[in-house]
């Protein structure tokens, strides 16, 4: 297949787990759509990740230590000059048609970004993720996570939030929006990027036909203390940067509920440390006032969609209590 929809570069941030990286690079080598370049940005791995990337012919960037997901992605974006850039976690497995499917739809829709359907690598009948939605509290939901795969997750649609687990970015969007905010390090940096898109009227597309497998926090672990601390901190920083409009009640409810959820999962103290760290940074983070009204409307619409989908598919405990307590 020729590159009829434009050139594509793959950027892969990685940290250890050479076995996962090797599997992803094999998948990229077998893609039916030609890749201009594969860029692997290594965040100070202690295993054979760099050697595996170099042996696969990837342009390899060695960072001196783990600088976080955002910094690694930005190093890759700076080296990519193609029409499209696919940012891929090292724990994603791609079928041969993934690039051709997602770039074809993104090109046809002139989408600033696009994401596909991710199935759980341990249980391919279950959704790992589709697109993201965001509440006014600064807490996000990966739509369909851990629900059985089915037609409700298979409708293409325009979206505002896409996870950077496996995402395709248009060059013009990167040029307009810029890179990821490295102050987030890892987690919710993709939501921040998409909020900046919302401020400028840039939207994306959900392409459910572009199906991939995701091991799901294989590198850091979903409820490991370091992961939880960063998420808890970044929820507050996301709210500080973008969401300080109107009634602060939903933010207080949502943040406290997430803290309680972390205690229930055995990671409460890590979450509390993250919230305290977020408070310490709060005053230093200036509010992003660009596109204020567009951001407000996008987030309020996103929260309404969370409630609609949750009511149809069955409420998760967190969202049941969130909507009950905010009175909506």
Quick summary of this structure?
The protein is an alpha/beta fold.
- What's the tally of helices? 11
Helix proportion range: 40-55%
* Structural class by helix and strand composition: alpha/beta
CATH architecture of the largest domain: Alpha-Beta Complex
Beta-strand content: 15-25%
Ranges where pLDDT stays below 50 over 5 or more residues in a row are none
Termini gap = 50 Å
> The biggest beta sheet, please?
10 strands, mixed
Number of domains: 2
- Average pLDDT, rounded to a whole number, is 94
The count of DSSP E runs of length 2 or more, i.e. the number of strands, is 12
CATH class of the largest domain: Alpha Beta
- Write out the CATH superfamily name of the largest domain: Spore Coat Polysaccharide Biosynthesis Protein SpsA, Chain A
CATH topology call of the largest domain: Spore Coat Polysaccharide Biosynthesis Protein SpsA, Chain A
- Global Rg: 19 Å
This entry's quaternary arrangement is: single chain
Q: What general outline do the C-alpha atoms trace?
A: globular
* H-E order: EHEHEHEEHEEEEEEHHEHHHHH
